[in-house]
What we know:
five-stranded mixed beta sheet
Amino acid sequence: MKKISAIVCITLLLFSCSKNNDLMPISDLGNDARYLAHIDVETTGLIPGYHEMIDIGLVITDVQGNKIDSLFLLIQPEHPERLQQGAYDCNAFNAQLWRERGAFSIDNAVDSILSFHHRVCGDKQVLMVAYNSHFDSAFLDHLFRHADHSWREMYHYFILDIPSMLWGMGYTDPQADEFMAYYQIEDEPHVAEFHTGITGAMVNVRIYKALMDLHK
Length: 216
């Protein structure tokens, strides 16, 4: 019986080692020339095409999460009267204040985003990264369509989202609260006046970089 048990243990050990050895090595991130565009937007509500963007934060990084450049724009919506209370509570949008701060028109905002992209990214392949990717990409799509452009002029059609990355690593909290607390990742402000697209984009970068650092 002891002999059989020993054989079983050895077999399981060999099988376990074999499984580990069969794992595909991770990609060579250091030699990956692609860029990532980490995007977060603030809006007047939840419905793309009816509600509008009021700002955008955009951080360009390499695939390891190292920051290359960033852009933050205030955008003047054409229908500020559609502002939802929930959106105001989140970002404190005020049409008059936005005008005083020099908010961009939609057309000028799109031109500025495109110019920033061409200056920073050149002809590199760039993938969009967001936390609520369906939300951010939908509003970005409407913004660009309004100006007779497409965000596909800048980014690959694949969009990466932070919660799926966390989930794939075994961290299934979609809010990432536990992950951020454990790895001491600084959160963005939750006071409406200081809660912007760039603060959201930067916390996304910090989470992404923490995930990439786990592979080192």
